[in-house]
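Action item from last week, closing it out:
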Amino acid sequence: MALLSGITIPDIVNGVKRFLEYEIVHTGKVSIHIYTLFLLFIIYAGTKLVLKLLKRYITRKARKTKVDTGKAIAAYQIAEYILYVLMVVLMLQSIGLPITLFIASSAALFIGIGLGVQDLFRDIVAGFVILSERTVTIGDVVEVAGMVAQVKEIHWRTTTVYTRDDIVVIIPNNKLIRDQVVNWSQNRLPTRFHITVKVDYGTDARKVEATLLKSIEDNREVVKIPAPSVMLRELDENYMVFNLFFFSRNLFRIERLKSDIRFDVEKAFRNEGIRFAFPKREVHIKQSDNQ
């Protein structure tokens, strides 16, 4: 206590001030003091806090106004991009490195890095485009390069999707805006699908039509409006070709639904005595003139 008796409040203030102003790094225009570290931490923590509050606000607003979840997530991720860029700029300026000077002095470095990671920047820009234009949103069923999958997450550089076999696939964002992508969920309406059936000649075509329609009338995943329909697509030399068209909202698991419908069609045909067509070959045997 005797040692502290001679210390005044101004002495404590000056000591704290000298501690905070202690220079850790000094090189060129960059000067880092103890208080600089505190400032960097405040900028980082403040950014994280703002993002947390923003996410909570957007989520609450989406629930009240019944805004589409994909729109809410896209709005948050765009705001996240902007805030992180501002955070980096503030951090550079806080250590005495203006962003304009940093860009000008590092132009050659950026060119070298850009050539090496140009695909990375393309993917990041593509991610921003996807989130702003909302061509693909979380929950959409998309078809990319012949693969049908459901979008689960959209990140800065990549998009995570799940295939119908529940396999996780990571797709670079650039691929989603460069290649042709079929978004089955974009119109928010039931989508039309069909199965093909081949039937032997000798069967009443109208009976086949009625049997096909009856086979799916109790299927809950087939919508009633628009109604299913049957088309006699082709009269082949060996069989008749029918298409059974139906509408469904079950886009992602449509192959399972098609399988269920084929089971029902097979059962209905068996009950009605309708025969599926099978390949036929005619063999002509010509006897030799010597016999």
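Closing note: Residues 34-65 form the longest helix (32 residues).
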